[in-house]
Every structure is written in C-alpha cells, then in structure tokens.
Design a protein that fits this description.
By secondary structure, this protein is α+β, with helices and mostly antiparallel strands. It folds into two domains: 9-115, no CATH class; 140-244, Roll (Chitinase A, domain 3), CATH 3.10.50.40. The protein is 52% helix and 12% strand. The protein has helices at residues 9-20, 29-50, 62-73, 79-88, 93-114, 122-131, 160-176, 181-188, 210-216, 250-276, and strands at residues 137-138, 141-150, 199-204, 228-230, 233-243, 246-247. Strand 4 and strand 5 (233-243) form a beta hairpin. Helix 1 (9-20) crosses helix 2 (29-50). The radius of gyration is 30 Å and the shape is elongated. Keywords: Isomerase, Rotamase.
C-alpha cells in the first residue's frame, strides 16, 4: 500500500494531464504541488471505493485490461516512444497495467453504484422541457458573405472619399453581375474572409456589427445590400441562405433530456455513496 508521503506515479501523471495537459516533469513547482494534492486525494478516494462492499466480486477481465492498455499505447507513434514516456514518469509496463487494472476496477464499481440511480420518468422530462425552453429553440440564422473597404486616411486608396468611390464601383458591378460576388471579394475585400470569397459563415442575430446585422436580417435570399458603414469601413453584404428558427418538439427532445437527467441522477447517486464511505485506515 502507498504510504503517506509517496504518490503512485500513474495517478500523479493522470492528475497532471487533467489539470495542466502536461507531464509532471514539465510542471512548475506550484503546479506540481497542486497536482500532488489532487493525486493524493484521488488515490485516497479510489482506496475507499476498492475497500467498499460494492467492490466485492468485481473482477476486471484480461480483455478489458488489454483494451485499456492498448488505448494508452495507441497514443504513441512507436514502442520506443511509449517506453520512453513510461520511464520519464517512473513507470514500466507492469506498473502501468497494475494501475490500469485499478482504474478499471474503480470505474466498474462506480458504474455498479450508478446503476442504483432512479430512472427518469415522463413527467420529469416534461418539466425539464418546459423549464428550459432556450435549450430547445434554435434562432433564425443566415449564411452571408461581404466585401469590406476600410477607411484609413493614412493611405490614399482608403481615405473616406476613395473608399466610398471604390465600394460603390464594386456595388455597381454586383448589380450587373451578382454571380461575381466571390471573385470581387477575393480581389477587393480587405477583410480576412476575402480568401473564402467573403463568406462569414452561418450567423445568428448579434454576431456581426450592429449595422451589418440590421441589414442582413432584412435581406431576402440571394439579395445584395446597398453600402453599409461600420467602424471598420464600408461593406456590401449578401444573404446567401435563410435558415428559419426552429423549436424542437418534446417528442424529439425526449432522448436528449432523458440522457441529461439520467447522467445527473447517476452522478448524484455516486457522490452520495462516496460521501458515505469510511476513510481508509492507512496504518493497516
């Protein structure tokens, strides 16, 4: 059994990756202390789980252990890189398999406990649906593209007068040849979206500059706006597609709600059970 001052290497590594996405050796001293605290707490909780009555009879098969081992091994390009990583974290293959067996057993016990959680019923699903309408409503969105000519008095082509002239020349061309929008955006637009033909993607209200927002959401599909001014400069915007608002029905939302609520019940059941477990006797 791990004594009070030691920390099991795999638990330490797992905590470091969870908190900082780094191995323990890459951490600063303050980060390492934080990881050590979490690792000790996790190991102590796992000990309580494994000493519980619920753990009796739980056995991890060779197939399950092999699956867990291959999942870890698969994160590395080759065997040498894998073994080097183990060595850098004070581990070897046997130690890793022992730690994975422990982790799999803890997970199996927790799943056994979670299975006691009550099942979600239709009334609860209905209450959740009507209490959280925002979760099941998709607002109207629009696919759009634009052309920007910025205003910058330091450059002759971007003085207010020059920018106004340029954007109106572009708009004139678009009125005659709307199919040229992407080509004109690529050639003239001073927004990074120019390389995508001016496409800004699918947007909801409140995503763009307020001036563009107001114009876009009043355009018909395929329509091109007049010149719009924002703090960035002059724009011409086109509405490519209107995706109507949609509210998901209770019937369609039921599987999602059931999963959300059942997961919540399972976690609550596990937390209550963990809180009831006695501390591990370290002197044993």
């Amino acid at each position: 059994m791990m004594n009070q001052t030691s920390i099991e290497p795999y638990t330490l590594l797992r905590a470091a990756l969870s908190l900082f996405q780094k191995a323990p050796a890459e951490l600063e001293q303050l980060q390492l202390r934080q990881v050590e605290v979490q690792a000790k707490n996790e190991y102590e909780i796992e000990g309580r789980v494994l000493n519980s009555a619920e753990a009796t009879g739980v056995v991890i098969s060779d197939t399950e252990l092999d699956r867990a081992y291959k999942e870890v091994r698969g994160r590395f390009e080759d065997e040498d890189a894998f073994l080097a990583a183990l060595n850098a974290n004070s581990l070897d293959v046997d130690m890793l398999k022992a730690a994975l067996y422990r982790q799999c057993k803890v997970d199996a016990v927790m799943d056994r406990v979670a299975a006691r959680a009550p099942k979600v019923n239709e009334v609860e699903i209905g209450i959740f649906y009507h209490s959280h309408p925002e979760k099941f409503h998709k607002p109207e969105t629009r696919q759009a593209r634009h052309i920007l000519i910025s205003i910058n008095p330091d450059y002759p082509d971007n003085t207010r007068e020059a920018a106004w002239r340029r954007i109106n020349e572009i708009l004139g061309t678009l009125k005659r040849k709307p199919h040229k929008f992407a080509d004109l955006a690529l050639k003239h637009s001073e927004c990074p979206t120019a390389v995508q033909g001016g496409e800004v993607g699918t947007v909801a209200k409140g995503t763009l500059f307020p001036e563009l927002d107001a114009v876009l959401f009043n355009l018909k599909e395929d329509a091109i706006s007049d010149v719009v001014e924002t703090e960035m400069g002059f724009h011409v915007i086109q509405c490519l597609k209107i995706i109507p608002a949609e509210t998901m029905s209770l019937k369609k939302a039921t599987p999602k709600i059931q999963q959300i609520m059942q997961d919540r019940y399972r976690r609550n059941c596990q937390r209550t059970w963990l809180a009831s477990l006695p501390a591990v006797n370290r002197s044993a």
